[in-house]
Target: histidine kinase
Amino acid sequence: MNWRLTGRFLASVVLIVILVVLSNIVLLVLSIMVTIQTEWDETAISEKGNSAEAITSRFHEQIIISNHQATLTDKGKAELDQHNAWIQILDEDGKQIFGYRLPVGIKEKYAPIDIIQMYKYKEIDMNTMVFIGEKQTGSSHYSYFIGFQNRNLQRHVLSYDIREVVQVFNIGSILVLTVDGLIALIVGYFFSKRLTKPLLSLIEGIRKLANKEYHINYEPIGIYKDVFYNVNYLSYELRAAENERKKLDAMREEWIGNVSHDLKTPLASIQGYAEMMKDTEYDFSYEELREFAEIIERKSLYLKDVIEDLNLSARLKNKELRLHKSNKNIVTLLRNVVIDTLNDARYADRNMEFRFSDEMIKVDMDEILIRRAITNLIYNAIVHNDPSVLIKVSVEKGKHTLIRIEDNGKGMKEQELDRIFDRYYRGTNTGELHKGSGLGMAIARDIIVAHGGEIKVNSLLGLGTKIEIQL
Model:
């Protein structure tokens, strides 16, 4: 995997460099061709203008030859004066027949080789550039030198063999490509190693996460720092989820054990009393039979409550429960819950208060579910406290409807407060007579949240507990 990833990056970099080099070569060739064409065009244009070569080329028009004698027009003299130039006219034998503004010491007769030397090299001085022209009169041909005294004027004669140029170009291209390829290979190798090293670490980290190894922490640096940060965050979330899953599994196993025991106990009672009533060896009185039937009914209702809690909790957790909302008076609902609780023979001696800010506080709610949530919260306050504890239920009307259920009882430890809404959790203060499914508080929380509300719990050990519901 290491070399495969490095090789891919390396091949990409080398390919890009080669393409760039080839493109540069093509552009260079095109540039040379355009430059040559441009120079040709400029030369053609210059011949029509006032360049030294153009002046020399057309100056034969200003030369007048008659009877083997030469002279210049006034316009020609003026043009030579303007360009600080001189002229020397030769006959067919290379002898001077006319001169104008000639420098001191110039030859008066030239051999063919002298003419060539005069044209190709600076034979006068370093400040003069000489050009050659021709004047034809009848069958006679006359030559003339025009020297421009301008040190900035230069002429270079270039000769080359096109085959040698092509050969040098081919060798140079191969050499350039080879050198560029080696440079690209070296640079690309180190670049790809630097680029792929953190990727290999990321791949290894993702492999560990896939194998449920969640203890990963990278230092977020370099171009991949955001990726490293997200991998660290994912590792943290997965680790937290795994710990939560383990805790939930432990709670579920504990809950299954408790519920199994709680279900077996009433079932054993129901079975035992039913067998006794069926057995013909026993002759029970009418009052005894009614007592047995009452016990069987009470145990059956307990089983029914546990099964309903399981069903309701699952539907709330999976958001499969449809709310049947209507605009009802929450004050009436809370008053009835308090009255029904006090009418329960088990809790008839409990101290409870109910207060409200307005007689009519309308709320859009599913009346049955809100009643179930409030009942669960009140029962939780009852079963976890002594009979002498005062339980206060109140409702206030404001921007939101605020419901409070508070007591001055035992309170809770911080670790218990953190788990109070966990499914399957049972508080440590629950008596043997009040064991339930462990789902009551979770159901109450889910019902409030399903109504778009919030529920908060504050508790201090030994000082009591306060639950606030905002709808």
User: Anything to note?
Assistant: The chain is about 55% helix and 15% strand. The radius of gyration is 55 Å. The chain has four domains: 2-46+160-201, 49-149, 225-311, 322-470.
